[in-house]
Every structure is written in structure tokens, then in C-alpha cells.
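Recap quiz, item 2
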Amino acid sequence: MSPKPLHLNAFLMNTGHHEASWRLPESDPLSSTKIGHYANLAQIAERGKLDSVFFADSPSLWGDIGRRPSGSLEPTVVLAALAAVTEHIGLIATASTTYNEPYNLARRFASIDHLSGGRAGWNIVTTATLDAARNFNLDALPTHAARYERAEEFLRVAKRLWDSWDDSAILGDKETGLWGDQRLVYPAEHAGEHFQVAGALNVPRSPQGHPLLVQAGSSESGRAFAAAHAEAVFTAQQTLEEAQAFYADLKRRAAAFGRDPGQVLVLPGIVPVLGDTEAEARELEAELDRLIVAEYARDNLAGLLGVAPEELDLDAELPANLRPESEIEGMKSRYTLVVELARRERLTVRQLIGRLGGGRGHRTFSGTPEQVADAIVDWADNGAADGFNIMPAVMPSGLEAFVDKVVPILQERGRFRTEYTGTTLREHYGLPRPENPRRREALETAVRGVLAHSR
Amino acid sequence: MSPKPLHLNAFLMNTGHHEASWRLPESDPLSSTKIGHYANLAQIAERGKLDSVFFADSPSLWGDIGRRPSGSLEPTVVLAALAAVTEHIGLIATASTTYNEPYNLARRFASIDHLSGGRAGWNIVTTATLDAARNFNLDALPTHAARYERAEEFLRVAKRLWDSWDDSAILGDKETGLWGDQRLVYPAEHAGEHFQVAGALNVPRSPQGHPLLVQAGSSESGRAFAAAHAEAVFTAQQTLEEAQAFYADLKRRAAAFGRDPGQVLVLPGIVPVLGDTEAEARELEAELDRLIVAEYARDNLAGLLGVAPEELDLDAELPANLRPESEIEGMKSRYTLVVELARRERLTVRQLIGRLGGGRGHRTFSGTPEQVADAIVDWADNGAADGFNIMPAVMPSGLEAFVDKVVPILQERGRFRTEYTGTTLREHYGLPRPENPRRREALETAVRGVLAHSR
């Protein structure tokens, strides 16, 4: 049996995932609000036949703007703009279930799916920052549990809305003047704990039926949600052993939900730092780390750990008395990953900042294109990944290097497509278009009515 | 003094504003979800050097899909897609203050303003349908007054957010590693009746500062809101006298708010039905009216009037016992316009449907290009309009006819631009970029602190 083909997503972020990337001579420090920059990146990724590009998001201004490019264009409108300048590549945006209404968000993703010809994906997040809560009428961050409960109901409503038009509801019959068949429109009729949504979506069912559903939380609730609903999972994993454990756990959980584990794709993040020689790659990595302003980075780390910046000595290890993950209401799994990384490798705060500055908890891998390709195939062949979330340290140059130097190696080895074979994002990932259950449900209800009446 | 130049907006809607336009041989009945259709329309409008294109919107599925093309792509993502395939023309989308959160919506418009290079406009609506309320956790439509109160506060918050970055906040200084000046970021710090929004927007101030603010309600509250805030006003006016009265009223109200009346542009809707001869134009209009399915149209009219469809006899006038406008919580001014039109011209329900099917209350004008140009100039020269909201009965053909036949006449008469002279939507409309008051406010606060301390 030939090995499974890999799936590759490009995680786009202004000048790159290394927080000091904007300081390199090649970088445009103002790129974060320039759509031309993102259009260029998406076109580079499409040249490499990647499955998709992806944008992270949170509805708040993150930290001090002194440190690094801050602020960003809202990702759903960015996807719409990119759909117009690309033809094949999938387009995934992050959006929060805690700070949106299902009708609005389901509609935007259905619209993007239409205008991209079936290339939309939604990275479902519950948004774990107090800053965001305070932009949406709240004084406190809703608990982790409350956010995930709302997310469950949100997604249920969104699916009802995406399925509220039968695929055959539109007739367009000019002769009779009958544009559509109202009997094949199914109002959401949802009345739940968090939401009441009565009507049908005002967007016909989209090319993919539902956008691709992506998830990136690795906490207990996050894994449960991913196993129940996600079709692609982005995850931060530092070692092969951890990645294998996560992969096996998620596939097992998906099976326990009655799902085909092959339809839940696990994509660990990797921050490739590429050079034509190992020395060149290490030099680029070192240059980037030198450009980090340590004091700013310490403030950010302190925020993640929930301690005051003064409690972190740059040249000492992390304090011993940090809180357990169970007490963290924010990004639980990221918290644990960072603390475990620091403890395992006995890193000073300064060293930890270097590691995080590169990939914010994701695995940084410096090397030649051959070495990066080996690292990717190694995890895929050892039960740790169905593909990768590529997070170039510097963009566009790092994405170009990956596409032009690493992708051809994966193609030569028969592990990556040389042409797009499908037209939708679901087809790129080998996932089916969801059936619409509503017509059958409506028929069954009608039949039950007739039977009850005939008794 | 040469007469003022006109402003022209193209109101885009699937196959055209006549509800039966989709039944014409030339029309694609599936165009409403095709972005290529809207890209074509926007490019036609841009070829005619129009100020802007515009999309109406409501977050609910409107009526029975049997009657005419239903469902539509969400307009903010449509604007983003159109920004990528046009260069000059302004892009205006409708969005509801009742069913959005200020942080999310302010952010999307700021993002579209960035990615279009300063071409975004927001048509502010409060959304007057029960169907929409029932998609957003409500059992009843909020009252007209409550919706406008929320809109006032919504807009105040949105402006705080658009102004939360000083124009000079970004430094991008690679040498020192200082990307921005956090002192020039001003959190919204809004705590009001409907909203609490603490933070700054996570989008830097956009090319236009604020998107162009558009309004289209003509009720008492709608006019007050427009006079206080709007920079362009779309309105439905059937006769010159009514249009003059509305124009004068709005300018007077704007002045009473201390605003320059010249910076509140009034654009009545006009539905041009063009033919090379008058007879040709009338034949097209008659053909369209023949294609209306009267029973469907009656249902829709009944909904607007708040009566049961059976109460409307197709071949009789409207019932005498309709409610006064004051009891209507929905679209007040549209209700009155329709009732007055029917009573004034003693129209049967069937005749009224023909008039509404063409323009839904807007003025239909059939004629040659010369006649349409005359009609436009006539209102502009007689204190009834600063420009027009062009609503072609059939699209693309009616928009093409307007751009290729009417626009050149207006250009020859020196009443319309022959090239774009500005780059932003505000520049097209001759409106200034709003200043950002926050830096001065922050300085004044600091000075007061120093003075208090020195006493």
C-alpha cells in the first residue's frame, strides 16, 4: 500500500511567525493591513498546490503595539478578497462562537463558500482572553466550560442554517414564474439554551454544503469538541512522542463518537527555518532570535502564565509556584505546553522566549529542505500527523522557500499532489460533502402525520 | 456659477429591481449567489465613473422563494471580493445595528476600507422585520424607538473604535525594534445603555478614517438619525414636490445639528427603464409588468401593510381601514409612501403591484436616455436631489444602458465626472476625512492632571 498523501496548510501572518521577522531588511513592517501582501502569500501557497491558507483571529487588540505588528484585517473579509485572486486553494478563517451570533456567522461562511466556489473553511474558536470579553459587554471571561457549551449549540444552529435550503430548492423556471420551491426550505426552528433562531438562512446551500470545520484547541474540552465536530485539527506539538499520543487520542475519541477517524485530519504546526545548508538555517534562526526585544516578550509570557512580568527573571528558570492548568480559564493547553517545555529542557526565561518567539509553542525546525521534508515525512509515517500546518518564520521568503524547495521533494517522493485534483477545499482534504438531513426529516414527519391520521 | 456636479450610486440587486426581471430571456435566474455577476456589474458602474455601488440587506429570508430570486450573499464579504476586482468605485454595504455587535462590525468596515484603499461605505439600518428578530433570540421586533436608540449608541461606539488608533501610531522602526507607539492607542472605554466596549479596535485607523456613513430611513426617527450622522441619504420619492420637501427638511435638520448641509447628500432612487425610443421603453416596462405573478406580489404587499392577503382584492382599491403610520413598528415611511401612492392615484391592488414591482416604492421612469438625463437634471436643479440612487429594472442590461447612454449625456452637459479625480469614496462624494479627536482629548486630560497637581 502506498503511503497516504500529506495535507499542507499555510498559516499566514503578516511578516511571519517569528515575532521579530518584521525587523529583517526584507520585511515590510506595514504589511499587516495590506491585502496585496496576503494575496501574494496565497498565490505562492497555491503555486505549491497547498490544500489551504489559514488566518488566526481574536476580536481584541493583543498586547502592546510596541512589540510587533499589531492589528489585522478581519479574516472573513480577507478570505472574500483572496477568493477573487486565487482559483484553487482552500481559504480558512478563525471566528469565535463566543462573540458572534450563529445567523450572521453561518451566513458569512456560506457566502464565502459560494463566492470562492466551495473553498471556505472555519476554524472554530471559543476565544480565551479577558480583553475580548470586555469588548462584548462582559466584565469577565466566560468559563472554559461555558464557552464550549455555547460553541456546541452554536455549531448545531450553524449546521441547521447551512442545511435550511435543500440542494434542489431553486428551480429558476422562467416559464411558470416559479423561482424556487418553498417546501424545500426548512426553517432552523432552534430554541436552545443560548440561542433562538427561527428562520432559514437567506443564502442557498453552498457548494460544500458546510464549510470545512477546523479546530485548534487541545484542552480536554477542545479535544472533545474536535473529536465530535472537527474535520481538520491544528495542534502545537513539540516532540514526536507527544504528537503520537495526541494523534492516537484524537482518533480514538472520534471513533468513540461514531465517526470515521480518517475523516478527522491532524495537522501539527511546524515553523520551518530553511537554509541551503544547516549552518545557513541556524544563522537565520539566530539572527531572528537576536532581534527579539526580551522585555516585550517577557510581558507577553507573563500574560500567558497569569503572573506579573516582574516575577519572571530573564536569566532564571520559571518560578516554581505556577498554577495548575485546571485553574487556567484561558488557553489551557498552550499554558501547559509552555510550562512543560520550560521545565523539561530547564530553560531560562530568556531561552524560553527565544523558543516561543519563533513559533509561540509550535515546533521550530531549522534545516535544509531535505531535512525539513524528512521531518515532515517522519511524523506522518509514525502515526503523529496527517499533514502539517506550515508556519514560516518569515513571509513571504520562508513560504517561498517551503513551496519552491520542500514541496518538490515531497512531490518527488510521491507524498504530495503535483496538481489540484478537486475543486473544493473538502476535495483537497479528501473529505465528503455533508448530506442534508432536512428533506428526509420533513418527509418522515409528514409520513408520521399521515399514519397517525389513518389509525 | 456652474451647477453642482451630480453623484450617482448604482444599487445592485441580482437580475434587477423589477421583481420579474429574472424571467426575461437575457437574465440568469441563479445570478444572486454568483460573485462573477456582481463583479461584472461593479465593473460596468466603474466604467461609467459612478461614485459607488450599493447592496441592501436584512438578516432573514424574505418571503416565499417561489416568487423571485431569494437569498443573497452577505454584503460585507461581497464588498471585499469586489474590492479585489475594481480600482476606483466606492463600495457600500447595508448592515444592521440591531443584530450586530459594534466591535465586530466596526472592524469589518475598517478592514474593507483598508483592503479597498479607502472605498468602504456603510448603509446604517435598524432592520424592521419580525423575521430578523426571530433569528436573533427575540420573540418580538424591538420598537422603532428602541432600535434607533441602540443605533445612536452603536454608531458612537463604532466611531470610538475607528478612532482608537492615532493616524501616526505606527512607527515600524526596525532599528529600535519599536513597531508602534502604545501611547497613541486609545481604548474605547465605552460603558453605555446597550454596549460595554473597553478596548481599542484591532485594526489601525483606515484610509478614510471612518467609512462613508449612509442612511436610508425616512421616518421621523430615520430623518433625525440621518440629519445627525449620515453623509449620504438614499430615499424613495415619487414626485418632485415630495422630493423637494424631503430635501429641504433634511438639510434644515442637518443645519440644526450644527452640520454643513452640503455634507449631507440626498440621493433619491430612480428606476430607469430605458429604450432608444419612448415606445421601446414603455414596451419593456409593460413586458416586465406582464411577468409579475400577481398572487405572490399580493402576499408581499399584505406583509408590508400588516393585513392578511385575503383582505386585498386584486381588482379593488386598498381597504379603507388600514392602520395609521404611528401604529407601524416596521418600515414606517415605506408603509406611508405605498398607502399614499395608492390613495392619490386611486390604484387597484393589481395596479399598485405593477408600480411596486418595478421599484418597490421608488420612482420608475421609462424613457429615452435624453429623457432620463432630463429627469435627473430637473430634480437636481430644483432642490430635490444632490444625485441619484440608480436602480436599473434589469441587470446587467439596464445598468449598461444607463452607463453607456445616460452618463455620456450628463458628462456632455458638464454635470458628471469624466474621470475619477479622487481615490477614496469620500473624495468621490466631495466629503472630508474625519479628524481623530482622541489625541487632543488625551492631551487635554493630561494637561488638566498637571494643572490640578500644581495647584
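Chain A touches chain B through 83 residues (CB under 8 Å).
Residues 144-162 of chain A form the longest helix (19 residues).
End of item.
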